[in-house]
Amino acid sequence: MPCNKATDMHVLTVELTIKPENLADFLQELRQFSRYIVQQEADCLRFEIFQDDDDPCRILLLEGWSSRRHLEEVQLQRAYYQPYFARVQSMFAAERLLRHWQALPLEQG
């Protein structure tokens, strides 16, 4: 797909800070959860996990979805989110920071 087609997707970034003593367990939970989403959800167009080079307890999720509406009204309401958050909520050292992004075309017009 050409790069300029990125405007067709809604991007969500999630910044996480994890307690150091929970990092390994959290990453295991996150990887398992993320694989499930990528395999099961056709509206998930992209899902990447990044770890801060300078602070390994800082994690960034970059997610691409078919639309913000789908993400908020359908995806985030799925039943499997509740058990996941119940398992990982206590591992967070700070509140999650969610940001929604709209892609801009490379060329104006």
Description:
The protein has 109 residues and is an alpha+beta fold. It has a single domain, classed as Alpha-Beta Plaits, CATH 3.30.70.100. It is built from 3 helices and 4 strands; from the N terminus they run βαββααβ. Strands 2-3-1-4 form a 4-stranded antiparallel β-sheet. A hairpin with a 6-residue loop joins strand 2 and strand 3 (58-65). The radius of gyration is 15 Å and the shape is globular. The mean pLDDT is 92.
Q: State the separation between the terminal residues, measured CA to CA.
A: 20 Å
CATH class: Alpha Beta
Helical residue percent band: 25-40%
Number of strands: 4
Main sheet properties? 4 strands, antiparallel
Low-confidence stretches: none
The CATH architecture can be given as: 2-Layer Sandwich
Count the helices. How many?
A: 3
Strand content: 25-35%
Short description:
The chain is an alpha+beta fold and 109 residues long. Helices cover 29% and strands 28% of the residues. A 4-stranded antiparallel beta sheet has the order 2-3-1-4.
Keywords:
single chain, 109 residues, alpha+beta, Alpha-Beta Plaits, 4-stranded antiparallel β-sheet, 3 helices, 29% helix, 28% strand, globular
Record the SSE blueprint:
Blueprint: E1 10-17, H1 23-40, E2 44-51, E3 58-65, H2 68-73, H3 81-88, E4 97-102
Antiparallel strand pairs: 1-3, 1-4, 2-3
